[in-house]
Write a structure and sequence with these properties.
heterodimer; A: about 290 residues; alpha/beta; Rossmann fold; four-stranded antiparallel sheet; about 35% helix; B: about 425 residues; mainly alpha; 2 domains; two-stranded antiparallel sheet; 18 helices
Chain lengths: ~290, ~425
């Protein structure tokens, strides 16, 4: 399987740099792209899918520039954008057949693949229903199905779990974990738990830059000594929020247990095992919209 | 199912497009029926009920039957004599007009013929104050004057051209066309047929505007709803999808043109038949025209012009649709080009500007056949109706590839 290489990838919007000199290589497995709003995740994914031209750098599939590969690259690509539009008067079956046609699948391939995918995303019984009548979660699952329709070797999913209920999210995670064997899956999300269990590698993006990358274990290990718990009373707990990044406040019979992200803990705080959410908060607690 | 069929289907799946296309069809159906019924009306006298459509056509065709054929000097003389026969003092009403029954029997069958004869031979330019003045003028034409009718018409056409045009080359061009007008004119009932021929261009122009509205979302709708970001990532989602979209737009345009023409001409044939269509336009309302065409030929030209105009207009729409990020600005821009710019041209009254704006899609209709607008290229005169048939298809050649190019390079920001 070919690797995807991002080489000093840069994108600017006016004076703002949305993606700043990002270089990385994606091989087989699931990559979780984590970052706050405006971190540049979507811009990066759009460039990776060839629908947004970079201002600098290049993207290689194997050793070839994707801009030169054109149709051949797109044939290997599956993409679910964050704000994907549907054709409301199409049924799910019609929509997927149309997408199959766009993706160059034969009629036989489409007839074989579409029912299977609809089953996998839990839409088997509603394929003949117009998309207009679908809920947000159903549309999202249809979006996932279309992205996987051509059995892509590079699957790019931008906020794929938005609008999915917990049960659907679990189903999605399992689907992606199965699918990723021998393929590359890059998914962005705000929901840390979505990638925590299935991502082979986490990419942390902040202000257009790749801040950190590694496995969940590597990232959490790097955060050791920055996560603390402190049992205190309610009034003190409120005061803590003004000074520290508080990951969690748990009300107990004896008071409040606060989980703090800091390298300078208050007296009485006990070191805790960091989770990926703690890592995320350590980097993005100061970001707007978080 | 291939991509073209999907894109074709998608146009009909879009509610707004479907409504607009339905409106275009309804418009043609309405006017198809209207022209052959409400528009074609006759009332013999204030005391009798008004007759409509096919009944009027049938009656007038029956009245004209004895006069149907080449409009020779002998026929015109006989018509003049029939006017004189009918216009007797005992047939006159108190207001100086003729008894309705007498008018129907004597005047109505040859009314168009004598109107045209009078338009050419009249010394006062057919400006009569009373009906009696008109009848007296018609019955006073001498045999000699009537025998010289076609020569007088040619002279009349030439005078009008010289009054209107400064360029001798243009004048000679139109005189050469006039020489091709077959004489004697074939006289028959043409009234209803000319109503249809006269309005088909305008109606299909409106159809063209509606097609522009219907196709505005073809690319812009994809950007607007966010589907473009997925479609553009697919193997065939760029060049092939753009080509399929353009082809689908052209195919639906041709289909809708055929449907609209079909329903309009179908109503014409069903309500009025085909009688009168083979008369030269000069036998009807355009006696002084240089146009060597029959009524059906002129109507056919209007239909063909409407087709190329619609194809050009939707090509412009496709371009704006690919260029804009949402449907509404695409509608505004394309209507700006095919509707407001030609209107502006008619207000500006600057000939050069008018000539250029006349080359825009949907700027001209059937009436262009009776205009003397020309262009000059390498010393040759190019008449506007011919130029339009050559220039309008170029919009497709230019704007559709441009639309495709813009779409395939669209950046999802």
């Amino acid at each position: 399987m070919q690797t995807v290489t991002l080489d000093h990838l840069t994108k600017r919007y006016g004076g703002r740099t949305a993606v700043n000199e990002i270089s990385l290589t994606l091989g087989e497995g699931v990559y979780g792209l984590l970052g706050a709003n405006g971190a540049g995740k979507t811009t990066l994914m759009r460039m990776l899918c060839g629908i947004l031209e970079p201002d600098g750098g290049r993207i290689l599939y194997g050793s070839s520039d994707i801009a030169r590969l054109g149709e051949d690259y797109r044939a290997m690509l599956g993409y679910l954008p964050q704000d994907f539009g549907y054709y409301p008067d199409f049924t799910a079956l019609e929509f997927l057949r149309y997408m199959a046609c766009l993706k160059g699948l034969t009629r036989t391939e489409a007839d074989h693949r579409i029912p299977a995918l609809l089953g996998q995303v839990g839409l088997a019984g509603v394929g003949k229903k117009k998309i207009r009548a679908y809920s947000g979660g159903m549309k999202q699952r249809l979006g996932i199905a279309q992205a996987m329709l051509n059995d892509p070797s590079l699957l790019v999913l931008d906020e794929p779990t938005a609008g999915l209920d917990p049960k659907e999210r679990v189903r999605f995670r399992n689907l992606i974990a199965d699918y990723a064997k021998g393929r590359t899956v890059l998914l962005s999300t705000h929901i840390v738990s979505d990638v925590e269990y299935i991502a082979d590698e986490i990419l942390l993006m902040k202000q257009g830059r790749l801040l950190q990358r590694g496995t969940v274990e590597q990232l959490t290990a790097a955060a050791a000594g920055q996560v603390w718990t402190l049992c205190t009373d309610e009034a003190t707990a409120v005061g803590l929020e003004r000074v520290y990044t508080v990951a969690n406040l748990h009300h107990t019979a004896g008071g409040v247990e606060a989980r703090l992200i800091t390298s300078d803990p208050p007296a009485g705080a006990k070191a805790a095992e960091p989770t990926l959410e703690d890592v995320y908060l350590a980097h993005f607690a100061d970001e707007e919209g978080q | 199912m291939n991509l073209f069929v999907w894109e074709f289907k998608k146009i009909f799946k879009q509610r707004s497009s479907l409504v607009t296309l339905g409106l275009a069809f309804a418009l043609c159906l309405f006017f198809g029926i209207y022209q052959g019924t409400v528009s074609l009306t006759y009332r013999e006298s204030p005391d009798t009920p008004r007759e409509y459509g096919p009944a009027v056509a049938k009656k007038e065709q029956a009245l004209i039957e004895p006069w149907r054929g080449p409009m020779t000097a002998e026929v015109i003389k006989a018509a003049r004599d029939q006017f004189a026969l009918g216009y007797q003092p005992e047939n006159l009403l108190a207001d100086g007009t003729l008894e309705p029954q007498v008018r129907s029997a004597y005047i109505r069958p040859i009314g168009m013929m004598m109107n045209n004869v009078d338009a050419i031979l009249s010394k006062v330019g057919s400006n009569y104050n009373t009906y009696a003045e008109y009848i007296n003028a018609v019955i006073s034409y001498t045999d000699e004057e009537i025998e010289g009718f076609y020569e007088a018409r040619d002279a009349y056409v030439e005078n009008r051209l010289r009054e209107k045009l400064d360029n001798e080359q243009d004048i000679q061009y139109f005189l050469a066309l006039n020489e091709k007008v077959e004489t004697p004119f074939y006289y028959d009932w043409t009234r209803g047929q000319e109503y249809y021929a006269d309005t088909v261009g305008s109606i299909l122009t409106v159809v063209g505007w509606l097609l522009c509205i219907a196709f505005a979302p073809v690319f812009a709708g994809e950007y607007q709803c966010g589907a473009a970001s997925v479609v553009l990532c697919t193997r065939k989602g760029r060049g092939k999808a753009a080509a399929a979209k353009c082809l689908a737009v052209l195919a639906v345009t041709v289909l809708w043109w055929a449907l609209c023409c079909g329903v309009y001409v179908g109503c014409q044939v069903l309500l009025l038949g085909t009688r009168g269509l083979n008369c030269p336009v000069q036998a009807g309302f355009f006696v002084s025209s240089f146009l060597p065409m029959t009524v059906w030929e002129s109507e056919l030209y209007a239909l063909v012009l409407a087709l190329v105009s619609c194809l050009a207009a939707v090509s412009v729409t496709a371009f704006f649709s690919a260029r804009m990020n949402s449907t509404f600005p695409a509608i505004v821009c394309s209507l700006g080009v095919v509707l407001f710019l030609p209107m502006l041209g008619s207000f500006l009254k600057i000939e050069a500007v008018q000539k250029v704006l006349a080359l825009l899609p949907l700027a001209k209709d059937y009436s262009v056949l009776f205009n003397t607008q020309t262009f000059h290229l390498f010393g040759r005169v190019l008449w506007m109706p011919v130029v339009l048939l050559v220039v309008l298809p170029l919009y497709m050649v230019v704007f559709l590839p441009l639309a495709g190019r813009i779409y395939t390079r669209h950046q999802v920001r």
